[in-house]
Write a structure and sequence with these properties.
Layout lengths: L1 H15 L11 E11 L3 E2 L3 E2 L2 E2 L4 E4 L2 E11 L4 E8 L2 E8 L7 E9 L2 E6 L8 E19 L1 H5 L2 E6 L2 E13 L4 E10 L2 E8 L2 E8 L3 E10 L1
Antiparallel strand pairs: 1-6, 1-17, 2-16, 3-4, 3-16, 5-8, 6-7, 7-10, 8-9, 9-11, 10-11, 11-13, 12-15, 13-14, 14-17, 15-16
Keywords: Signal
Organism: Thauera aromatica K172
GO cellular component, one term: host outer membrane
């Protein structure tokens, strides 16, 4: 009888005090997963000594790295998040410039830290926690270099300007336990840069509106 009474009391207490499954004011949330940067590049024509080469353009391929985010819940519904990652590495191709030059041109790495203010519309005890966000991005480019074939063609001194721009975000967490969650997130980031280089004694430049979609799927943990 005592055992039955204890079990009944425990069950009643559990039903009366449901486990908090989601985010609340003061929580830190760390998320990690596979992050894909997919540039929606739109470049100007390649310029040689200031003169545009008609029909020429540059394109940038996708890359996947480890994505990391750290969030802090300012209230039960408002959070602030920093997006970071291991360095992304991209190849640059050009077309319409000249035979022997068209094709793979160069490669570079970049880091795109992004700071976002987020809104979580659902109640704090919901297992599903969709959110929207908006913020600012800073992108620094480094390790720029031409392919061996393009160096043989006379290309040298590649540089990409740093970029500041706005970002938009959609995402959702699904709570597996009161601490562990599955996360999926999507960002649109306004990144644009000007690439400059030398081709022999000529100066080469091209403006690229990278404007990537960034996708991340992974796990998160709430502290």
């Amino acid at each position: 009888m005592k055992t039955s009474a204890l079990l009944s009391s425990a069950l009643a207490l559990t039903l009366a005090s449901p486990l908090v499954m989601a985010h609340k004011e003061g929580d830190f949330i760390v998320r990690a997963g596979a992050a894909v940067v997919a540039p929606q590049d739109d470049s100007s024509a390649v310029r040689v000594n200031g003169s545009a080469v008609p029909g020429s353009k540059a394109t940038i391929d996708n890359n996947t790295q480890l994505g990391l985010t750290l969030s802090y819940m300012l209230t039960d519904h408002i959070g602030i998040e920093l997006l970071a990652a291991t360095p992304f590495k991209h190849q640059v191709k050009v077309s319409g410039v000249a035979p022997g030059i068209d094709g793979r041109l160069a490669e570079f790495k970049h880091l795109p830290p992004t700071l976002s203010l987020q809104y979580f519309p659902l109640a704090p005890d919901s297992k599903w926690q969709p959110y929207i966000g908006a913020g600012i991005n800073y992108t620094r480019f480094f390790d720029e270099g031409f392919s061996r074939a393009q160096r043989a063609n006379g290309f040298s001194s590649l540089e990409l300007d740093e970029s500041w721009g706005l970002s938009l975000q959609l995402g959702t967490d699904y709570m597996i336990t009161d601490r562990l969650m599955v996360n999926a997130a999507l960002w649109y980031v306004d990144i644009d840069t000007t690439a400059t280089a030398r081709l022999g004694t000529s100066k080469v430049a091209v403006d690229v509106d990278v404007a990537p979609w960034v996708f991340m799927v992974g796990l998160g943990y709430r502290f």
